[in-house]
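Chapter review. Work through the record for HRDC domain-containing protein before attempting the end-of-chapter questions.
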Amino acid sequence: MVVNEKVKLAITVASLVAATILLAAEYRRRRRRKQTSSPSSCYLHSDIKPQFGFKRVLADNSFSGFKHLKKKKLEDGGEKPSDSHPYESEITALLESPRLDEFEFLRGEYSLEMSGSYVWVETESELKKLAETLAKEKVFAVDTEQHSLRSFLGFTALIQISTQEEDFLVDTIALHDVMSILRPVFSNPDICKVFHGADNDVIWLQRDFHIYVVNMFDTAKACEVLAKPQRSLAYLLESVCGVSTNKLLQREDWRQRPLSEEMVRYARTDAHYLLYIADSMTAELKQRGIEDSSSTDDKFSFLLEASRRSNMICLQLYTKETEDFPGNAAASSLIYRHLNGHEDNSSISLDPKFQELVRELCAWRDLMARIHDESTRYVLSDQAVIALASNQPVTPEQIHDSIAQADLSSDSSPSAVICSHLDDVFQLTQHKLGKLDVILPLVLDKCLGTEGTCPISVFNYSLLINFNTKLTTNRSTPKRHKSLKRFTRKTSRDLFVKKFSCKAPVYHNCRIYANDGRLLCYCDRRKLEWYMSRGLAKLVEEDPLAIMLLFEPKGRPEDEGNDFYIQSKKNICVGCGEGDHYLRYRIIPSCYRVHFPEHLKSHRSHDIVLLCVDCHEVAHAAAERYKKEVAKEFGIPLFVRRVLDSVECESAGGGDSEDAGVSPLHLRTAAMALLRHGNRMPSSRREELLQTVKMYYGGRDISEEDLEKALLIGMSPHERRKLERKKGVTVSVKQENSNNGSVEEHSEEAPPGGDMNGESSVVGDDSGGDGAPELNDTQCNGNILHQQNSKLSLLGHGPHGKQVVEYLLKEYGEDGVRDFCQRWRKVFVDALHPRHLPGGWDVTHSGRRDFGEFSVYNPTKKVSTG
Ligand code: AMP
Ligand code: ZN
Ligand code: MN
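Structure tokens for HRDC domain-containing protein:
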């Protein structure tokens, strides 16, 4: 049944797409010919919605199904399909053997009263702290608030969590991309989560964050089992706690920040009393068990039944609704309801044109809602659809009036979608867009196509991509094919910019003066605050911020030839001057820089610059080419050629024969392909890949587990953690020494971001490679005997950077490193001919600097903190 529907949908989409090629061209021809109105500009160019800041969106608005969290289950022999519940076995275990000792929701002294204070959680570190707090609890209460009007699928705007001690309000808009931090406590079967009416919450948490609830007590289910006269939370609040709540607030716009006092009180109320209610209801359930049972065996039967029904809710899975044709279900139900309500007036309703128009409008509104990430009811209300289909207005003004009139009861004028795409509605009502099956591809192309009017986002990107890949496999003209390819590249570039460019100006250009009034440097706000909070400086100017140091700093930048540091810096690409977006670019590649002696790293604000994506690409490509030259020049290979399992290596008597082992990259690709498609690929290919993996294991036969293990070979702990986080598996690699060498980030005494002369926010995370210089592998001739505890990634450039820097230091001392830096600056300048480098920037930037009493690079300081 489900499969059947999927096939149907696939066929529909495919045929839609095929029709597009023909129609898109036709549409453009018509548009060019007519030139009636200028191409509509979409309202989304100026209407910024909070969800457009989300980077990780699990459920987008395309027609593809929802992918659930994958949890590796080695004992079951491989991975579960992603459409099954990742915690099914944990929940089933709870259903089969519930632990009675767990039904204790309150301990010790408890005051029912809601205190005046609560915790607003909006930063990643606050969320981590919350996760730590919750991990220590045996039980906590949860509720969520959704926003659904200005979003196609809806999103969680707030999560309320209450422990016996505190109420937490989690800003799930600000924290959307890092909510996985709460995954472990929610799936921990040893911690009971109390909800009221959890059916929706459970599914919403899956949809937005891949959070799965394991071990739940739902007070609504307890009501059911106790056959209470009502099951609403409002009723329980009244009857159990004597508290009243205004449920009208649940329909408020929960995206707003700050929340009004009233909304905060409502939100807290929904979670705060749940522990008390659960406690009182379990007592009642136990009591009822004793009264109603003949034997002591089933005196817990009521309680167990409530628990069982609660955990059944946890087994539910979020699915994206699919239908045979977009908007079809809504259209049918609208027509049906309309016919039933208008038996006397059936002449209009039975009009085939009316029904056709209802179907077209519903299909159009469905697609427009997906493209703009709005609810269908926001795009065009049901009553407006009916009004348009009945009135069949002939001018844009009449359309506008029809909608406004129909919606009078709810809101005033037509939605922003209608207003900026009124032309579409006009053509629909005039039947100018053609038949139903051609409308959608037309609209999609009109909105998101090469000359589309609407912005592309993570929500509609795959609508477009599916549509484009299908297009390119079709026999389109080579010219169109090329322009489409270019277009897809452009859209993915735009998304890349959105995802990776700096979200706020990098340079705050705050100033620090010496106590003689001379300018020492420009820096960011954080550093000013650091000096201020320690009483080391006084504020001398508010806007723009400037402070004066109360101690005597070591030297003055001009005296040291370091003019560079007393220039304010522009938030633009230093290559071309682009100011709309920029990314940080490291002129000295991290694979070398992380191995520099600490005090030579202090020139980060000089050697980390801002570039737009295009200049970034050019500079990066040049750097990659130059790395190859460095590798040749120094005779130090860029990639690890071969790895060999350490166990196998020992048994092979050292294993240093030249052709033992396998390239870590090849190993990983082969293992991945085998795990994913192993049983579907031709046996010859399978054998070939198996050989690659076997090479790593010294030729022995390999198991599924070996394949899994091979996936991690060559990864640094950092990369492994990233992978595990992505897969949502609990972190297994211990985080020892992960802040190795980054004194400036963790030292209590040092100003944030290092020495006096840099904007700390430019620094960022210094490397993809964890900043951890230790290499625990035994190595010879670019061959590595891999041991699991290596901190260095072998998938990237492995030990190359470390060896180059060691060589430079050994042969030429620190001057060698300085020259090496100059070479990289030259590579950068030659590749990009940057026109916007800040004044004082210099290829030969000396790097010789003294360090004052308060600098992190002060050697005495290093001893005390390092
Ligand atoms: P609650 O926990 O009762 O505050 O409801 C949680 C969320 O469900 C709210 O934030 C609303 O988005 C949604 N919701 C629940 N009931 C309704 C309703 N009757 N009308 C609109 N939205 C509702
Ligand atoms: Zn639009
Ligand atoms: Mn609520």
